Amino acid sequence: MLRAKEAGGRPSNKEEGLAGGGAMGWGWRRQVNQKDGTDRAKGGPRLKETARKYLVVWLAVAVGLVSTLFLFKALRQWGWDRLQDELERQSQSQAAALQRGLDQNREVVRSIAGLFSASYQVERDEFRSFVHGALTTHGDIQALQWVPRVRDLERSSYEEAAQREGLDGFHFTERTDEGKLRKAGWRREYFPVYYQEPRQGNERLLGLDMASDPALLETLRRARDEREMVSTPWVPSFSDKGQGYRFLLFQPVFRSGPPFETFGGFAVGLYKVGAMVEESLEGLELGGVEIYIYDEPASEGPRALYRIEPSGVRRLEGEAQKVAEAEIASGLNWRTALEVPGRRWELLFHGSPSFIAAEKRWREWEALAAGLFLTGALGAYLFTSTRRAAELARANLELKEAYENLKRAQSSAIAAEKLAAVGRLTAGVSHEIMNPLFAISAHIHSLLKEPHLPEDVAADLAEVQQQAKRIEKISQDLLSFSRRRKPQRAPLDLNQVVEKTLDLVRHDLSVRKIALEKELAEGLPAVLADSDQLSQVIINLITNARDAVGEDGRVEVRTALVKVDGGGSVELRVEDSGPGIDPAHMGELFEPFFTTKAEGQGTGLGLAICHGIVETHGGEIWAENAPGGGAVFIVRLNLEEG
Amino acid sequence: MAERILVVDDESFVRKALRKILEAKGFGVSEAATGDEAVASYKKERPDVVILDVRMPGKDGLETLRELRGHDPDASVIMLTAVHDEDAAREALEAGAFEYITKSTDLDYLEMALMTKIAMVGGEDE
Question: Which of A446, A465, A479 sits opposite B83 (nearest CB)?
Answer without folding.
Answer: A479
